[in-house]
Amino acid sequence: MDYIDPHIHMVSRTTDDYATLARMGCVAMSEPAFWAGYDRGSVDGFRDYFHQLTDTEPKRAAQYGIQHFTWLCINAKEAENVSLSRDVIAMIPEFIDKPNVLGIGEIGLNKNTKNEATVFLEHMELAIKFQQQILIHTPHLEDKYQGTRMILDMLSDDSRIDRSRVLVDHVEEHTITEVLDRGFWAGMTLYPITKCTPERAVDMIEKTGGERLLANSAGDWGPSKPTAVPDLIFEMRRRGLSETLIRKVVYDNPMEFFSQSKNFTFTLRS
């Protein structure tokens, strides 16, 4: 089955991973800007990174028949440095019209601090100004519920935000309902250790019915599995879920959400 991975960090993967993903059925992916494994010290470091996301990775992906899209921001893990964050946000418009850019992300919170919230709100202003979609990072482990509520409140308090154009990622059992109930899209991140296993993800799919729900592998610098979405497909089939529902979660829903961006030019497959 063809599928789209809506959140995968290919800058941390080898070209062998591209080949494997293509063989497993991945036809398109989106790569949010994120932490590089270390804190960057200058706006020029981010400028080079954005060149990688908008030029190098699309070319790498195309060699394997995969279409690559991206999102731009300074990640919440580096948002404690408000001065640098503002320099990066001011620089993002240099790249906003690149043909594979879908929006602003992944923005959000890491430790739920005041500085992180400040930078999050300034990213929101950028997205509103340039009419961009938003991809949200929610915190990990013990900070997740509080941080998710803080993020949803900040988004909901601004009437200019179109909730149908916001994807809130890394949802788990205790956050998915509120994300969906408030009208946002929800993303389940499939990890071998933290966040969400394929088995837990299928539980959530069965509970919600799959509306406005996406699944991704993240595939970042830590313990992760870039083929986690095929693992989810296998688990859904093992439980007897319909092929229509499986396709909805791994293909149709990403197509519907990303198609709201003028730069999403991927052709729907029959």
UniProtKB/TrEMBL annotation:
Residues that span the membrane, as ranges: none
Keywords from the named record: Hydrolase, Metal-binding
Keyword set includes Cytoplasm: no
Record GO terms (molecular function): hydrolase activity, acting on ester bonds; metal ion binding
InterPro entries, A to Z: Metal_Hydrolase, TatD-like, UCP005295
Superkingdom of origin: Bacteria
Record keyword Hydrolase present: yes
Family: Belongs to the metallo-dependent hydrolases superfamily.
Official protein name in the record: TatD related DNase
Organism annotation: Stieleria marina
